[in-house]
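Lab notebook, bench 4. The sequencing result for the construct came back, and we need a structural model before the next group meeting so we can plan mutations. Quick request posted to the team channel:

Model the 3D structure of this chain.
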Amino acid sequence: MFWSLELLILAALVWTCTKISFLFSPIGIFISTLFVPIIISGFLFYLFNPVIKFLMKVKIKKFGISRTGAVAILFLFLAVVLVALVGYLIPRLMTQLGQLVTNIPGYAKAVTDSSTDTFNHLNNYAWFKEIDFNSYLKQFENSMGTYFQSIATNLTNSIGSMIGVATTVTIVALTVPVMLFYMLKDGHKLVPTLKKLVPEKHGDELVELLGRMGDTISAYIGGQAIECLFVGVFTAIGYSIIGMPYILLLGVMAGLANVIPYIGPYIGIFPALIIAVTQSTQMIVFVIIVVLIVQQIDGNFVYPNVIGKSLNIHPLTIIVLLLVAGNIAGLPGMILGIPLYAVIKVVVQYFFEIRRLQEK
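Done. Here's the predicted structure in token form:
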């Protein structure tokens, strides 16, 4: 009788909420509007907070740097970097992106012609003639042509959506620096404030747990930034050596795709392979060699030293996490799933340590 009443009350609450959902829509809009700036600001906070701590330890003529001064120095440095990016990197990226979009129809034709030549060459073999690949070839040609044409059409005709994206980016660009400034300036006050809200006997435990969680997130984000920068720069250098076009754009794509462990390198190499197919068979081999060299250096030297030691997660666990998080939340889930698991792992390990100490 008790459980039946509980279920009836719960069902009544759900039904009532569906009827007055319009009351909650402003809250949903408010949360969705702030979600992206908060995520980006939090990411940058954990990335730059170690830099703030380092600057505060620096002494100039026996005078230290305050936290506000360290934040000001960091923002000044970021402003210089941003000006350099806007003046040098972004115009070249936009130029290469425009050239790539313009050449998409030609690349589509080159890919289909290359596949046709390959099938015609294989038709010289008796064993291949017994397999009817003509229907598959026609489907492949039609699908490739439709796919590339749709990409070109969407990129050229989606002016309205581009204006919406530009508006969102502008809002985020204006909001994130303000949020980041106050996070870096006053973020250290959060833990003492939370400590006052819990019983005194658990205050030190909360401080230690939050410290471990913060160190894990900071190590992962900082290491991920270093790894992506390494992959992007050295992939672009490798492409420039072998004579690939769009080296800057392809290097940025490879670096950004590397945010996703294990799957990222395959996503990053795909655009380069499509362009290499239009060049020559030798270029395809060179692209694969460049990516293999960069990924081997990254997997054996960079990742174990900047990320692997801080997370200590088995590769099989990472693959399972990527599959599950990707199905649940798509690309954001694949990016955020591993650090979230690492934080949960830290919490579980800490409580197990506390329990062992209590049993002793």
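DSSP finds 13 helices and two strands in the chain.
Will bring this to the meeting.
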